[in-house]
Amino acid sequence: MYYMIGGLPKQPGAIGVFDSGYGGLTILDNIRKILPEYDYLYLGDNARAPYGSRSFEVVYEFTKQAVLYLFEQGCHLVILACNTASAKALRSIQQKDLPQWDNSRRVLGIIRPTVESISGITQSRCIGLLGTVGTVQSESYLLEIKKTCPDVQVFSEACPMWAPLVENREYDKPGADYFVKQHLNNLLSCSPLIDAIILGCTHYPLLESKIREYLPQNIQLISQGEWVAKSLRDYLTRHPEIASKCTKNGRCEFLTTESEIKFAGAASVFLKEDIEKVKHITID
Ligand code: DGL
User: Fold this and answer.
1) What is the 10 CA–ligand 1 centroid distance (Å)?
2) Over the stretch 260-269, which tens digit does the pLDDT of each residue have?
3) Among 230, 210, 229, which Cα is nearest to 221's?
């Protein structure tokens, strides 16, 4: 449902960070490390997560609702800290929706900054990509890589169980080993030349220690948080007109479509700090 009575708030606001659930916290964590002065408003659509196996239309619709909600809360800049949403909704939101809502607001994804890191990492020019079904099927990474580093060959593997394992806090339990081993083996059997793997889902850093257990030592893991954070810092430097609309009190607040208590408990584990300011919201 879309309505904007009296338009969106004009005064500066927090930077919005959106994910289907908890995964985007891994991005937020990195962003806050290098840009601690800004305010952040994180929205996890936990009640409808995971997004990974949902259709293009559904991911686009859910993401659009979340972005508009964050704009209504005063955000002028929203980061889609979710590869599935970046792959399936970013372009349409930027091209179709922003001009209708407010062309001065910005929505940024996390696929481009991740891809920009690849060239300096792979020696063999042969890499792997692990992501949700939606991200892999969208071929967004392949298209970006073709533009940025056309000599790099990419092998992809969709891991439909990995985000649910994280969302259900099973990522460090023995059951996770089976799925981690299975998908890594599938990917590595594609080519002996793979020397770097993109963790193309913001939920996957939570599985990183399990992944490393089954990964040959010569293969590097490309985790997105650091690259996205650096890219955001550069973006804000290059765009002072956007930076000036982002408030700076070092605050961080959280919104969830699930229960506040459940979110606070899980988010405290993921961020390794006590989360207090959580509000339940409904979006549609
Ligand atoms: N964390 C998200 C991503 O980066 C989505 C995972 C999911 O909801 O399936 O793709």
Assistant:
1) 31
2) 999 999 898 8
3) 210
